[in-house]
Design brief:
- 71% of the residues lie in helices and 6% in strands.
- The chain has a 3-stranded antiparallel beta sheet, with no helix packed on it.
- Helix 2 packs antiparallel against helix 3.
- The radius of gyration is 21 Å and the shape is flat.
- It starts with a helix and ends with a strand.
């Protein structure tokens, strides 16, 4: 990030939102300002390497609409979108699998409910096995969707939306 943008982001996170106070919560106790900064640095690197190359291309060739002979409207996307979608999808799946933030926010309730059920039924093995299967199914189907989109784009060569 440019230093002025990073400076502004640091101000917003640490002075205005007081993000470091999250460390007082048990689910964030392993984190520090260094881990928050590492996430920001990684996000910057991903944006610079994966998405920035497409920004200029998409600015030069904007989406347009075409009317088909039968009257349906067709949106024609820039060619860069076809190359950008796999990178975006790949990162989305990777974030779902690996980031602590997603695990803390999205799956915390699932794990909380699983823990409650395990305590009530005294069957933690079965409860957490089902919980792991639910997590696996979510990631697996998200991966299938990503691969299907990538295959469709590779086969059709189209970048249009009907």
């Amino acid at each position: 990030m440019t230093s002025s943008l990073r400076h502004t982001l640091d101000f917003l996170l640490y002075q205005w939102l007081e993000a470091e106070t999250l460390q007082q919560r048990s689910s964030f106790s392993d984190h520090s300002r260094e881990t928050f900064d590492a996430v920001l640095d990684t996000s910057e690197r991903i944006a610079r390497e994966k998405y920035a190359p497409f920004n200029r291309l998409v600015d030069l060739e904007e989406p347009r609409t075409e009317t088909e002979p039968d009257g349906t409207l067709r949106v024609v996307l820039p060619q860069a979108v076809k190359r950008m979608i796999p990178a975006f999808m790949e990162r989305s799946i990777e974030l779902m699998k690996t980031t602590t933030l997603v695990a803390t926010v999205a799956y915390a309730d699932l794990l909380f409910q699983a823990n409650e059920l395990a305590q009530k039924t005294f069957r933690p093995l079965e409860v957490f096995t089902v919980t792991a299967l639910i997590y696996f199914v979510v990631i697996y189907f998200a991966s299938l969707v990503v691969h299907r989109i990538e295959r469709r784009l590779a086969v059709s060569g189209e970048t249009t939306v009907h």
